[in-house]
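hi! just following up on the protien thing from before. the input was this:
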Amino acid sequence: MRTIPRSTLLLLVIAVVAAGCAQASSAPAAGPDPTDWEQVRSDAEGATLDLHMWGGSTEINRFVDEVYGPRLAELGITLRRVPLADTADAVNAVLAELEAGRTTDGAIDLIWINGENHATMRQAGALHTGWAEQLPNAALVDWEDPAVALDAGLPVDGAESPWGSAQFQFVHDTTRTDAAELPGSYAELATWIEEHPGRFTYPAPPAFHGTRFLTQWLYELSGGAEAWADGFDEDAYEEAAAELFAVLEELRPHLWRGGETYPNDIADLDRLFANGEVDMTFTQLPAGIGANVEAGTLPDSARPFVLDTGTIGDHHYLGIPVNAAEPAAAMVLADLVLDPELQTAKLDPANGWGDGLAIDVERLADEDRAAIDAVTAGFGDLALPPERLAEVRLPDAPPELTDALDRDWERVVRQQRPRS
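and the predicted 3d structure came back as:
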């Protein structure tokens, strides 16, 4: 079953939640006070914490269950991971509860969230705010870094606590595509697709990697990410989107299966790549593809690369719904994931994830910094050098832009109808 499109959801959010709050007998309860950490820990003891998160990666799921689960158990908290096909499912569930007047004892205690889903919940007043910067381990986070303080251009304002960081990268197979032949821009990629018919595709938006792939292309056509620094501009979008969708239509017959079908998500694209049906896939992991190679989902000969014109980097977060049944336990996990030992473990591809750091290494003790350095030294050529990623890093787009892309892709590419 498809979720409500994000563009439609954003239009409905305020009316839906306002109606629900009008019917509710009381406002959502205030969250625990993270400055009284002893009380938070006491309130959390004995809780079952329902963490709702994208469940499309077996390796990430295992890491959450086998690393965080036992650590929470030591604190008297039972972790119940609830897998999602799309984070919007959890957002819809919280909004439906609030509409129905369920302002306490909600089914969701914590959501793995960022981007449009964060914006949607903030518009609805559906997230606890003001707590994230008060966690004990929040002192290790560089809250002045715009990549942390802004989520898709919207100030976090303590409504989310960072869990990790990511940056979009392409992946090729060195046995099929020589590094000298790789595109350095979307303009060059379009040429490459035409010259290699049937060997490229991308996940269908609103799948995350598909939307991000198109967002970067729109950046290039609109003069760069800086064109969106002041927020969404409808006229600028119309101009760039007209060019983007014209290019996509021209390239359609050169895509895998003639552009008549698209992978559902990155896992589907990885399978096509590993099976030799297409020559490129994507990753978001700053630590590279070592975990994927180790798990056998990508071949040993796979290597990441980025476009010279830049790729989007951002953070991902944990958010607490205003009606969470166990907000204290949610804060305990949000604090736990910032522990330097666990951030280092998450960074290490040998542990199955390879996710980027949410903490600032300059704020760490020498032994913690040395542990991170030891992990990064072992990445090898299955990861790009951090300085290369920093060189091409672009900020995320306003949520209105990605919503518009998802809407137009569904209409123009999937349904093959005019944009307007």
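The chain is about 45% helix and 15% strand.
Residues 295 and 352 are 8 Å apart (CA to CA).
cheers
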